[in-house]
């Protein structure tokens, strides 16, 4: 792995995104719009929104980042761009890390927007520090990016990349504790939820929202999320193909 190469890839991806205003707007604004929609749905039940609003700050960025990065990476491979890039002194991990760095910068802006709107416009009630909530939201966006990069290695077309979203993300959405607390799930499903990254992303957000902070449990969940990010990038580098079949 060469940091200089990874930063060059990140700069290239950011240059591409700068020309794609619709994708950038979707990445930055869509999580906030979806959280706002949930607030509107529960306008007569603010306590319910306070309960689910925090976890949604983990779920929406992860799903949106997953879809965009999996399709973008598949497009690079299908168009032959990836094969041409690998004629240069660049490893697969350099490529994936560059993508992750570029979308991490987007995730910082995305988290700043969604957390600001949730706390100050929608009056989401949290007991923890706003900056800790933003840090976890950034990690969750990067998690979606890493999982999208990993999933793209198993898709041959952009349509297949989109199809992977319900296969990879919806089971995590159902089992992450957003709908039913994980300790109330049937034993087998609770065991499955214990190995799903989105479960820890939701736990980290919920911990901060409850006032636990990074020193009282939420930090451990955030570190687990970071571990999943690293693992997904390494596994993605091991499985990434230069071209589609």
TrEMBL record:
<keyword id="KW-1133">Transmembrane helix</keyword>
<dbReference type="InterPro" id="IPR051449">
    <property type="entry name" value="ABC-2_transporter_component"/>
</dbReference>
<dbReference type="GO" id="GO:0140359">
    <property type="term" value="F:ABC-type transporter activity"/>
</dbReference>
<dbReference type="Pfam" id="PF01061">
    <property type="entry name" value="ABC2_membrane"/>
</dbReference>
<comment type="similarity">
    <text>Belongs to the ABC-2 integral membrane protein family.</text>
</comment>
<feature type="transmembrane region" description="Helical">
    <location>
        <begin position="162"/>
        <end position="180"/>
    </location>
</feature>
<feature type="transmembrane region" description="Helical">
    <location>
        <begin position="95"/>
        <end position="122"/>
    </location>
</feature>
<keyword id="KW-0813">Transport</keyword>
<dbReference type="InterPro" id="IPR000412">
    <property type="entry name" value="ABC_2_transport"/>
</dbReference>
<keyword id="KW-1003">Cell membrane</keyword>
<keyword id="KW-0046">Antibiotic resistance</keyword>
<dbReference type="InterPro" id="IPR013525">
    <property type="entry name" value="ABC2_TM"/>
</dbReference>
<feature type="transmembrane region" description="Helical">
    <location>
        <begin position="128"/>
        <end position="150"/>
    </location>
</feature>
<keyword id="KW-0812">Transmembrane</keyword>
<feature type="transmembrane region" description="Helical">
    <location>
        <begin position="54"/>
        <end position="74"/>
    </location>
</feature>
<dbReference type="GO" id="GO:0043190">
    <property type="term" value="C:ATP-binding cassette (ABC) transporter complex"/>
</dbReference>
<feature type="transmembrane region" description="Helical">
    <location>
        <begin position="222"/>
        <end position="240"/>
    </location>
</feature>
<feature type="domain" description="ABC transmembrane type-2">
    <location>
        <begin position="14"/>
        <end position="243"/>
    </location>
</feature>
<dbReference type="InterPro" id="IPR047817">
    <property type="entry name" value="ABC2_TM_bact-type"/>
</dbReference>
<dbReference type="GO" id="GO:0046677">
    <property type="term" value="P:response to antibiotic"/>
</dbReference>
<feature type="transmembrane region" description="Helical">
    <location>
        <begin position="24"/>
        <end position="42"/>
    </location>
</feature>
<keyword id="KW-0472">Membrane</keyword>
<protein>
    <recommendedName>
        <fullName>Transport permease protein</fullName>
    </recommendedName>
</protein>
């Amino acid at each position: 792995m060469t940091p200089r190469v990874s930063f060059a890839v990140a700069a290239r991806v950011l240059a591409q995104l700068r020309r794609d205003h619709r994708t950038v707007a979707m990445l930055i604004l869509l999580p906030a719009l979806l959280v706002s929609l949930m607030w509107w749905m529960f306008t007569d039940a603010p306590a319910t929104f306070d309960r689910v609003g925090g976890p949604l700050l983990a779920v929406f960025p992860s799903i949106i980042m997953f879809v965009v990065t999996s399709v973008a990476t598949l497009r690079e491979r299908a168009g032959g761009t990836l094969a041409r890039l690998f004629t240069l002194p660049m490893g697969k991990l350099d490529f994936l890390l560059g993508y992750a760095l570029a979308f991490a910068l987007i995730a910082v802006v995305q988290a700043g927007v969604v957390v600001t709107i949730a706390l100050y416009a929608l009056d989401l009630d949290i007991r923890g520090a706003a900056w800790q909530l933003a840090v976890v939201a950034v990690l969750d966006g990067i998690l979606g990016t890493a999982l999208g990069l990993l999933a793209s290695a198993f898709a041959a077309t952009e349509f297949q990349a989109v199809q992977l979203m319900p296969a990879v993300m919806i089971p995590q959405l159902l089992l992450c504790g957003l709908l039913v607390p994980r300790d109330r799930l049937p034993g087998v499903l609770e065991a499955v939820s214990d190995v799903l990254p989105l479960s820890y992303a939701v736990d980290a957000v919920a911990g901060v929202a409850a006032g636990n902070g990074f020193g009282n449990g939420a930090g451990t969940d955030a570190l687990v999320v970071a571990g999943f990010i690293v693992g997904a990038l390494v596994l993605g580098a091991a499985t990434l193909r230069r071209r589609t079949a």
